[in-house]
Amino acid sequence: MSIISDFSPKKESNFPKPVTEPFSPVTAPFPQNSSTPSFLDTFFQNEEIPFGDLLNDELVRQILEKHNCRFGKTHHAVYTPLLVMWMFLWQLLSDESCDAAVAVAIAYCTELAIKPPGIDTGGYVRARNKVPCGVFSDLARHVARELDAKAPPHWKPFGRPAWVVDGTTFTLPATPENLDKFQCHPNQHPDVGMPLPRAIVLSSMATGCILDFAYDNYSGKGTGEISMLRSRLDVFRSGDLVVMDALYCSFTTMALLKQRGVDVVTRMNGSRLVDHRSSERLEQGDFIMTWKRPSKSQIPAGYCEDDFPETMKVRVVRYRVKNSDDQWETFEIVTTLLDEEDYPRDEIAALYNMRWNGETDIRTLKGTLSLDQVRCQTPDNVEREVWGTLLGYNLVRRLAATAAYAVEKSSDRTDAPDDKPYSTKPRDIGFQGTWNVVAASWMIRSLNGPVMPETWQRIMIQIAKHRVGHRPGRLEPRVVRKRPKPQAKMKKARSAYRRRVTVTAIEPEYF
Predict the structure, then answer these.
(1) Distance, CA of 393 to CA of 209 (rounded, Å)
(2) What is the domain count for the chain?
(3) b vs e for 366-382, b when ≥16 Cβ sit within 10 Å of the residue's Cβ?
(4) What percent of the chain stands above pLDDT 90?
(5) Which of 47, 117, 152, 460 has the fewest CB atoms within 10 Å, counting from its CB?
(6) Owning domain of residue 32
């Protein structure tokens, strides 16, 4: 089939048909409702597609009304909230400039023979700043939570919603507004360094979607990863399962989560002294311990001793792994999953090994989506850029989950090579490959609307072919191969360097 027939809509599209007469800005005003692209259709969002009912245009408009986002309703307005969000998501996922986003909008309007925006990016930037940050954060959290809730039970560990908690940092432009709110690294002067917020990321173990993203100053009281996690406990629900590293292994953190009905799987903190002589032994390498509440001086700020139980039972699972030097290392996993029949020892150890997925999610955000260095100049726009990126990331992850589910349920898999079968779990499908499929048809999907079932099936199969590498027990050294360029480090303010640069006067030649 041809490209045109493959992407022809199944039913009548809501978008106006292109006209053959030349466009006249005076006689062809910009329609407000019929010509606004839906970024949901761009991500193959349709109620007939699995997980396609997570978002719809009505829900998006309700969230816009909730945050009082009502600009672009006048007759002569060009930028509407949905058009701006469509442009912003493309800009963030493609890592392009505002000029490129405006060029895409002009091309879209030209195809529909409607009034395009001007080439100046000022109108787009001002309209983008009118979209509240809460719109992007509400949509991103909704996609992450609802997709994980509707995922098949065999995608989830023990059939329960599981979330990986991990920390990271990113940099901001050294503008006066950012420097007023965020500090640089303590070893750097504000005139030399860049603001360096510390952040924690909560990602789904089953689908890879980001449930929450909290960030604060790099150092200072109440700005650590543990403090940020305690401030975001409301995002968890009863029955959730949280997988964390050894930093979060503390009585207070685990007790606060347990009070909300949330179970924890984490690694034993090296600072805790463990004596298994007083523990209850279940089997070889499996113990039940009783932890006592810490002293009053170690209670976190904002809490009192009555907020925590006097004792708490935890389960300690011990297992061994072979490192890169071909030597065995012993690890101890602490969990609140006490039932050894419902939660076998080997499966708990395998669950903690899957914590590496949280590292790869952060690598995708910082590397592929360039969230390592945010480009916005003010704190409000920084939050808007962060949550806009997370919304686009979650929508791409939703499409990968749709492809995995569709291929798993499909019985027609005769064209799959024997050495490279299709992926049937979202974690086995690469993010970059899924985004490439979306980017290749971004404009076509926005113009044509819903896709035909046959075409949709072929697209899902192509997405499922983008498998990630199988890396069990991966341990990568923290070294880089590429050498940095031999340039001097910045040690003082840029203005001080500029003062030393003088215009050299050329002395005339005398004969």
Answers:
(1) 7
(2) 1
(3) eebbbbeebebebbebb
(4) 45
(5) 47
(6) 3-133+384-464
